[in-house]
Design a protein that fits this description.
This protein has about 70 residues and is of the alpha+beta class. The protein has a single domain, classed as Ubiquitin-like (UB roll) (Roll). The protein has one helix and five strands; from the N terminus they run ββαβββ. A five-stranded mixed sheet has the order 2-1-5-3-4, covered by helices on one side. The longest helix has 12 residues, at about 25-35. The protein is globular and about 25 Å long. InterPro entries: Hub1/Ubl5, Ubiquitin-like_domsf. It comes from [Candida] arabinofermentans NRRL YB-2248. This is Ubiquitin-like modifier HUB1. Keywords: Ubl conjugation pathway.
Length: about 70
């Protein structure tokens, strides 16, 4: 299990526990349950790179304690 921090830049920092083998789509579903927003309206970024739903966290080299930017579409 790893813990990833999502910052929505509106004052919320959400900690999400997941597996490195989860896809970004799975991660968004877990995150949406915690914040109460539909998962298809969430956009995860790191810098200028937008993460795609079908790629796993370990393929993006997302590890324990890493912080991602959360945006709403």
């Amino acid at each position: 299990m790893i813990e990833v921090i999502c910052n929505d830049r509106l004052g919320k920092k959400i900690k999400v526990k997941c597996l490195p083998t989860d896809t970004i789509g799975d991660f968004k579903k877990i995150l949406s349950l915690q914040i109460g927003t539909e998962y298809d309206k969430l956009v995860l970024k790191k810098g200028y790179m937008i993460f795609k739903n079908h790629i796993t966290l370990e393929d993006y080299e997302i590890h324990d304690g890493m912080s991602l930017e959360l945006y709403y579409s």
